């Protein structure tokens, strides 16, 4: 393998959504390939047709591209190859399976599902690890089944699978890039099915064939595939092929350190996309689930380019990585704080369009959809939103009239003389030609001083009539962005609608 250009792959099965663990596997393969100036390829492993889900392949690719993980052999990079699909390569697998049969490294097995289950239960009762009992292993391969019986079954068209014959009493050893040397005893390895009765190869067989033919230099995948390593390595040995280097990633864990599962929260990338997390935050977060830059580094926010520059398999740990949603949410806020205003503006326009399709604003549409207005809203709310869509959904009062007013705030802040006070202050605002935050603040203080009132007496009710809620950005800057006409209209509406609760 010396001198070969680094090639990695992500090989998902089209059985549903893209799991966050799958995203991490794809990301690490992508980062490693790019760090080494190599190539990253996607292969769809759809040999288990019974589990195939319609549109799953499309959704997998879409989620990866959303995250910025694009295969080199892809139409998006000017290629016309990818993704590779195993169900389109069946003749290849049959060819290599026949080679194993000819070399006496594989054999036909006509055992029925009932026979296999009976054998399994018997071994469990005996305290043994369930393995195929080799009933159909031919005599010329060390078994007891006459060749004539095998030929008879084939002639009769009896359904069969093809199994790999695992050598007796050999040690299977390899050096894992992350975990170091790992050794397996062949006595624990079952005669793995290579070709199923439907003519499709198993994952184990097809992946080895493809990994060799596609010239992958490194196989980076989850540690759940470690028990399959001896089967794969034996296949490489049978064919006389040099195996690639392997790196098995640590498990993703729930906060209670159980294996990450849907029972304890969302595990699909699409779930987090729907919630509003950005691709930058998710990629950054997933990259840190098992990898770290090393001692002395305190950086936690990385761009994709920075991850490519600094990623190494040597810095991937062996221990399981805890999936902490709070950390993901923190990262999202960091990106919102630093993302260019014009990028956020373009990002929230579709959200605003959706809201405008549901209800009509009293402010001119052309005003609230303008880049200038949206930029002002972004600057005011940047420190207060958790997701980009919240510039619209959490701050809807910048676009639509308040439909309700917080009852607790009304009970606490609304005085019997508030309609009169707000009415008089409204006249002050209306007479002013300077509707800036600084002037509004000065006018409010000048208004309450001779009445021997504290500014808070008017600040809280003014925020309430303007936004419907008791929290938000600086009141004076909020009023400035809303504009004089809108503020005066909302004051009048609040005076008309807000009533103190009956004692």
TrEMBL record:
Q: Where does ATP bind?
A: 262
SUPFAM superfamilies xrefs:
An anticodon-binding domain of class I aminoacyl-tRNA synthetases, Nucleotidylyl transferase
Q: Which reaction does it catalyse?
A: tRNA(Glu) + L-glutamate + ATP = L-glutamyl-tRNA(Glu) + AMP + diphosphate
PROSITE patterns registered for this protein in UniProt: AA_TRNA_LIGASE_I (PS00178)
Where in this chain does the record put each Glutamyl/glutaminyl-tRNA synthetase class Ib catalytic domain? 6-330
Keyword vocabulary terms for this entry: Aminoacyl-tRNA synthetase, ATP-binding, Cytoplasm, Ligase, Nucleotide-binding, Protein biosynthesis
Specify the protein name. Answer: Glutamate--tRNA ligase
């Amino acid at each position: 393998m010396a001198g070969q250009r680094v090639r990695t792959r992500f090989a998902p099965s089209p059985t549903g959504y893209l799991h966050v663990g799958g995203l991490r596997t794809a990301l690490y393969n992508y980062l490693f390939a790019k760090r080494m100036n190599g190539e990253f390829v996607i292969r769809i492993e759809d040999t288990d047709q019974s589990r195939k889900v319609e549109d799953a392949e499309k959704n997998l690719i879409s989620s990866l591209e959303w995250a910025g993980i694009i295969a080199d052999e892809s139409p998006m990079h000017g290629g016309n190859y990818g993704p590779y699909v195993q169900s389109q390569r069946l003749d290849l697998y049959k060819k290599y399976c026949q080679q194993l049969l000819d070399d006496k490294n594989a054999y036909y097995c006509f055992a029925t599902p009932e026979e296999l289950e009976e054998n399994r239960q018997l071994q469990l009762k005996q305290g043994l690890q369930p393995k195929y009992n080799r009933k159909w292993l031919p005599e010329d391969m060390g078994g007891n089944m006459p060749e004539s019986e095998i030929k008879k079954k084939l002639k009769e068209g009896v359904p069969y699978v093809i199994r790999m014959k695992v050598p007796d009493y050999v040690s299977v050893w390899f050096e894992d890039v992350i975990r170091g040397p790992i050794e397996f005893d062949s006595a624990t390895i079952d005669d793995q099915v290579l070709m199923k009765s439907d003519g499709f190869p198993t994952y184990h067989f097809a992946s080895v064939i493809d990994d060799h033919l596609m010239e992958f230099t490194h196989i980076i995948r989850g540690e759940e595939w470690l028990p399959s390593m001896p089967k794969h390595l034996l296949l490489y040995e049978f064919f006389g092929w040099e195996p690639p280097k392997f790196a098995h990633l640590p498990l993703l864990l729930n906060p209670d350190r159980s294996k990450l599962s849907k029972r304890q929260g969302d595990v699909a990338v699409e779930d987090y996309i729907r919630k509003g997390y950005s691709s930058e935050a998710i990629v950054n977060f997933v990259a840190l689930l098992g990898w770290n830059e090393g001692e002395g580094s305190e950086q936690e926010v990385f761009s994709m380019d920075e991850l490519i520059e600094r990623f190494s398999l040597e810095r991937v740990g062996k221990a399981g990585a805890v999936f902490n949603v709070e950390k993901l949410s923190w990262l999202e806020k960091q990106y919102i704080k630093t993302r260019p205003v014009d990028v956020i503006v373009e990002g929230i326009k579709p959200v605003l369009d959706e809201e405008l399709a549901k209800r009509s604003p009293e402010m001119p549409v052309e005003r609230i959809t303008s880049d200038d207005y949206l930029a002002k809203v972004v600057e005011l709310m940047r420190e207060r939103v958790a997701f980009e869509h919240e510039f619209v959904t959490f701050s809807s009062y910048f676009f639509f009239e308040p439909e309700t007013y917080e009852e607790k705030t009304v009970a606490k802040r609304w005085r019997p003389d508030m309609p009169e006070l707000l009415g008089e202050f409204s006249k002050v605002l209306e007479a002013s030609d300077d509707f800036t935050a600084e002037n509004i603040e000065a006018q409010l203080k000048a208004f309450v001083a001779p009445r021997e009132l504290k500014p808070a007496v008017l600040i809280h009710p003014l925020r309430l009539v303007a936004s419907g809620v008791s929290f938000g950005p600086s009141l004076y800057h909020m009023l400035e962005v809303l504009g004089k006409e809108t503020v005066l209209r909302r004051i009048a509406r609040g005076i008309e609608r807000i009533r103190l609760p009956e004692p």
